[in-house]
Design goal:
Distance between the termini: 39 Å
Number of strands: 7
Strand content: 5-15%
CATH class: Alpha Beta
Number of domains: 1
Order of helices and strands: EHEHEHEHEHEHHHE
Structural class: alpha/beta
Largest sheet: 7 strands, parallel
Helix content: 40-55%
Strand order of the largest sheet: 3-2-1-4-5-6-7
Number of helices: 8
Radius of gyration: 17 Å
Shape: globular
Length: about 250
């Protein structure tokens, strides 16, 4: 393999959910830079439109709510007709809930599982047939440090992100013989609107995170984007079923 082309995504069509801002936008930007055509999916037209203006002609968007499970197939077919068959899916869309377990309502817990887990499965299921037909594809799940160790006041979020791992391992075992690789990324604490919301008014928590992160800083969305490019590129052609922490060492820090 030519090392120069090992990280190229030329010819790929990537769908990034929650792609208009934060980690999703960082991933989309890295994909565009690597040569892919990228379709951003989200609920806010204005946010998606602004993101596409930043990304340039290789990017486009579809307004879509991932929790509308019955519409997953329609979305994938729309993208196929307009851009081409989806060869990379990044399940990134999500919501956050900061509450103690006692104060977390079952309805809120269910909403978290629907948005993260059931919606991600629904979209994955919708893209897989074309990937199987083409004997080529990548599915990425954006998990979290909260799936790896105990974080207080995010029980629903932690459960959802941990559930991704079971899907990744099972899908990788089932789909890798078909030429489809399935992996997960576990971002550490990355500068984003979601992080700022999670840490709002909680200076002690911010200090605790930094103190247990060996690199002594928060990450940036581009760090996650570059990791996603690697996992979807020829450079990772023998990599499937992994959880890759991008966390400044937080998961091994003391």
């Amino acid at each position: 393999m030519n090392t120069k082309n090992a990280f190229s995504l030329k010819g790929e069509v990537a769908l990034v959910t929650g792609g208009g801002s934060g980690l999703g936008l960082g991933i989309a930007r890295a994909f565009v830079d690597a040569g892919a055509k990228v379709v951003l999916v989200g609920r806010r037209h204005n946010v998606l439109e602004a993101a596409v203006r930043q990304l340039g002609r290789a990017a486009s968007y579809e307004v879509h709510d991932v929790t509308q499970l019955e519409e997953a197939g329609v979305l994938i077919e729309t993208i196929r007709k307009r851009v081409g068959p989806v060869s990379i899916l990044v399940n990134n869309a999500g919501i956050h809930l900061k509450k103690t377990a006692i104060n977390t309502e079952p309805r809120e817990f269910n909403d978290m599982m629907q948005t993260h887990v059931v919606a991600a499965f629904s979209l994955s299921r919708a893209v897989l047939p074309a990937m199987v037909k083409n004997k080529h594809g990548n599915v990425i799940f954006i998990s979290s440090m909260a799936a790896m160790f105990g974080v207080p006041k995010v029980v629903a979020y932690s459960a959802a992100k941990a559930a991704y791992l079971g899907m990744v391992y099972s899908l990788a075992a089932e789909m890798s013989p078909e030429g489809i690789r399935v992996n997960a990324i576990a971002p550490g604490w990355i500068e984003s609107d979601m992080l700022r919301k999670a840490l709002a008014g909680d200076k002690k928590r911010s200090q605790k995170i930094i103190s247990r992160t060996p690199m002594n800083m928060f990450g940036k969305s581009e760090d996650i984007g570059l990791a996603a490019v690697y996992l979807c590129s020829p450079a990772a052609k023998f990599v499937t079923g992994v959880l890759l922490p991008i966390d400044g060492g937080a998961s091994i820090g003391f």
